[in-house]
Design goal:
The structure holds two protein chains of two kinds. Helix content of chain A is about 35%, strand content about 30%. By secondary structure, chain A is an alpha+beta fold. Chain A has one domain: Heat Shock Protein 90 (2-Layer Sandwich). In chain A, a hairpin with a 3-residue loop joins strand 4 and strand 5. Chain A starts with 5 loop residues before the first strand and ends with a strand. The relative contact order of chain A is 0.20. A five-stranded mixed sheet of chain B has the order 1-5-4-3-2. Classes of the chains: A alpha+beta, B alpha/beta. Chains A and B meet through helix 1, helix 2 and helix 5 of A and helix 2 and helix 3 of B. The site of adenosine-5'-triphosphate has 24 residues of chain A, from helix 2 and helix 5.
Chain lengths: ~140, ~110
């Protein structure tokens, strides 16, 4: 039933590494409380965190909309108005990263975030325009 | 079966943040410092051995659902990270040994 769907809007502050991960943690906690299986909770948590941290590091922050449906799963839409991704195919490759040294020192920059999002979500779509921003839509199914 | 608390006691690890998670069972060991490798590859319920004691590492520990974080080489847990660990019940242990030795010691307890 459509009215069972829970919709969340979460704000992701840009360049604030101390708060990065809060949106994903909130959603993880909610899914656990709602009784989603550990596997679904883990898939959403990993895929969403990688997207969230990319918004912080590369996209200057933005908004995440999450739709939780007990029947069909979890849909996430991550929207930023940062520099955009010039070559999405390249960005999707394991090991490709433009992360600056300052964030590499924190443990980022392996170039594994987007591949992790692809691996842990069941559907993923990237819409990006240079100079305009990036939208990543992901879905995790229940089964 | 090995709980986080048993591992800490048997190996003489310092408990930097404890709580309910001390009773959690460790299934396996994983080690890496690059966060998105950990995110993608660390098994749930593993003991994660690393030298990364920052707030982002705590976020990864929580979201990847590891059993505990073990900071090798006496690596520090910074103030923001401690706060995040406390808020989210993430158990953080500390070892004076190198990463490999620490991971091997936990592995030995498991087998
Ligand atoms: N929201 C975004 N806006 C602009 N560029 C992005 C965005 N997300 C990813 N990118 C680009 O894609 C590259 C690869 O992203 P990916 O998440 O795989 O690796 P990373 O963030 O560089 O490192 P890691 O995620 O392993 O810490 C980034 O280095 C960046 O150039
Ligand atoms: Mg990334």
């Amino acid at each position: 039933m459509a009215n069972d769907t829970i919709k969340l809007e979460l704000e992701v502050p840009g360049d604030d590494f101390t708060r990065a991960g809060e949106a994903s943690s909130t959603v993880k906690g909610m899914l656990k409380k709602l009784g989603f299986s550990p596997n679904v909770v883990r898939k959403v948590a990993i895929a969403m965190y990688e997207g969230e941290i990319n918004m912080v590091i590369h996209g200057g922050g933005g908004q995440i909309t999450v739709e939780i449906s007990p029947e069909s799963g979890v849909s996430m839409s991550l929207v930023d108005h940062g520099p955009g991704i010039p070559n999405i195919e390249l960005a999707m490759q394991e090991g490709w990263s433009t992360a600056p040294d300052s964030v590499r020192n924190l443990g980022f920059g392996a170039g594994m975030g987007l591949p992790n999002m692809k691996k842990y979500s069941d559907e993923m779509e990237i819409l990006s325009e240079v100079g305009v921003g990036t939208t990543v839509n992901m879905k995790v199914h229940l089964a | 079966m090995l709980t986080v608390e048993q591992a800490a006691k048997q190996l003489g690890l310092t408990v930097l943040n404890g709580g309910d998670g001390l009773g959690r069972e460790i299934q396996t060991v994983y080690s890496c410092d690059l966060l998105s490798f950990v995110m993608g590859r660390a098994p749930a319920d593993s003991a994660w051995v690393t030298v990364m004691g920052n707030v982002n590492a705590m976020a990864v520990a929580l979201l990847a659902d590891v059993a505990c974080v073990v900071l090798a080489e006496n690596a520090a847990l910074d103030a923001d990270a401690l706060l995040r660990a406390e808020q989210n019940d993430i158990v953080v242990l500390q070892s004076g040994q190198p990463v490999f030795d620490t991971a091997l010691a936990i592995h030995s307890l498991l087998s």
